[in-house]
Each structure stands twice: as structure tokens, then as C-alpha cells.
Write a structure and sequence with these properties.
The structure is a single chain. By secondary structure, this protein is of the alpha/beta class. It has one domain: Rossmann fold (3-Layer(aba) Sandwich), CATH 3.40.50.2020. The strands form two sheets. The protein has a six-stranded mixed beta sheet, sandwiched between helices. The protein has a four-stranded antiparallel beta sheet with strand order 1-2-10-9. It is globular. The two termini are 23 Å apart. It binds inosinic acid and magnesium ion (MG).
Amino acid sequence: MRIEPAPPGAPDVVEGVLLSAGQIAERVAELGAAISADYAGREVILVTVLRGGLFFLSDLCRAVADPLRIDFMAISSYGAREQGGGVRITKDLDEDIEGKDVLIVEDIIDTGLTLNYLLGVLRSRGPRSLQVAVLLDRDQRRIADVPISYRGFHMPDTFVVGYGLDIRGRYRNLPYVGVAKPEAYEQGLG
Ligand code: IMP
Ligand code: MG
């Protein structure tokens, strides 16, 4: 993957551009077409994890054919997850997903622990199907082996910001996915 120079006016933390708005839009359109074909005529519930996945969801859902619903969850992590720390639901779905076709929409998968937890929770509610769409797959630190049905991009082992991804809550609104300078996030991952 080529990293392009940061555009003029980019925040100081951005070292370069990994994915431009155009590259993202093109891939999201392809994923939307694939999802539309696979779920043809069936209502799919797109479930997104706040807050990072919101931007991908917003573009993806407009590239998927009806019928479709969207719903949200929020989770928070505590402790060092690699050492057995956990994940907890802070906002649950509004929809009942029993017997429904559910597609989880995530911004990025790193260790896979967040998604693994979510899959377990949602599977226990008896959906008819449960699949995953993720924009960015960074598999170098994967701990939990999670099934990914729709993948935007494989990405290198760099910390990124923009298009939903943050450092301590900021930079989500950048229209591109930018590589963050190491000194910007080394005090703790966003
Ligand atoms: P996992 O449980 O290790 O797969 O963590 C995935 C979550 O960590 C994502 O949903 C993001 O919130 C966050 N995350 C992982 N990598 C990055 C990154 O490069 N930038 C911003 N957030 C990230
Ligand atoms: Mg997230």
C-alpha cells in the first residue's frame, strides 16, 4: 500500500494518507454491491459499533439495496485485553435480532477481541445469519480468529486516523484514512 503525502491543512498528527476519500468510496461501492447481491430480497440489519464504525456504516448502507435496517451498539473495554481484560456493552441494540439476518459493520479489526465478544453476544440471541463487514483488516496482532465476510482493505501495521478512527476521540471526521505519527498515539491507543 502506498502512503501519499498529507494534504495541505492536514492536522499535525497525520504523517501521510493511506486511503484517499476516493479509494474508500470506490471500495465501499463494491462492498455494497456484493452485500446487495448476497442478501437479495432479504432484510438485513446492519449493526454498528459506536463510534468509529458510524462513518463506514453511513456510506455502506447507502450502497446496499433495500430492505435494510440499521442499529447501534456501544461497548467499552477495560483492563489490558491481551491479559484477559474484558469488553462490556454500554448501549445495546434496539432491534430484536432473533431469526433475522445480521451484518456487523466495523471500522477496523486489530486483535479481533472486540469483534469476537460481539459475535458471541449476538449469536446467543439466535439470528438467522450473522456476518461481518470490516473496512480495515490489520491482522498482524490478531488474537481471536474472527470470520470476515466483507473486507475493505488489508492494511499494514500502522496506527491510523480518520473516516471514523480516532486518537482519544479526535480526528474521526477526516475524509481519508491517514497514518498517524507514532508520537501522536504512543500515550495510549485512541
Ligand atoms: P480489537 O479488539 O483489537 O480488534 O480492536 C479494534 C478496535 O480498536 C477498533 O474498533 C478501534 O476502535 C480501535 N483501533 C484499533 N486500531 C486502531 C487504529 O489504528 N486507529 C484508531 N483506532 C483503532
Ligand atoms: Mg471501534
